[in-house]
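for the recovery benchmark. tokens below, seq after
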């Protein structure tokens, strides 16, 4: 009878040791997986950073091309309408003149306001 109990106990020990080994391997795998998370995040951030850098680079190239083209047109003595046509803007000459007139009126109002402020604060006193 004592032998039966010994066999029964040893069978339990084998089952527990298998469970413990499974738990040890699971913990090791989990630790490895968790340690890889920062590397995965770094890879994702690097990839997205490279995409963003490419987009910014293309936009800056486009802006530089537009600057060079508009400067070239200005040096050739082209007016606002010709410059806008070069960049495929859908404005008529009338709309451009209205915008220019509004801008001139705004500038005149600002000049008048600045003169009034200057005079109020003793700009005329020496």
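predicted aa per position
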């Amino acid at each position: 009878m004592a032998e039966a109990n010994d066999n029964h106990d040893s069978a339990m020990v084998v089952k527990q040791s298998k469970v413990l080994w499974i738990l040890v391997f699971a913990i090791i795998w989990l630790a490895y997986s968790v340690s890889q998370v920062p590397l995965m995040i770094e890879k994702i951030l690097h990839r997205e950073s490279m995409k963003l850098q490419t987009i910014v680079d293309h936009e800056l190239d486009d802006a530089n091309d537009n600057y060079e083209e508009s400067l070239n047109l200005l040096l050739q003595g082209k007016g606002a309408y010709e410059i806008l046509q070069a960049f495929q803007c859908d404005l008529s000459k009338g709309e451009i003149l209205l915008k220019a007139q509004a801008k001139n009126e705004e500038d005149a109002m600002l000049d008048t306001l600045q003169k009034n402020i200057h005079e109020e604060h003793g700009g005329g006193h020496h």
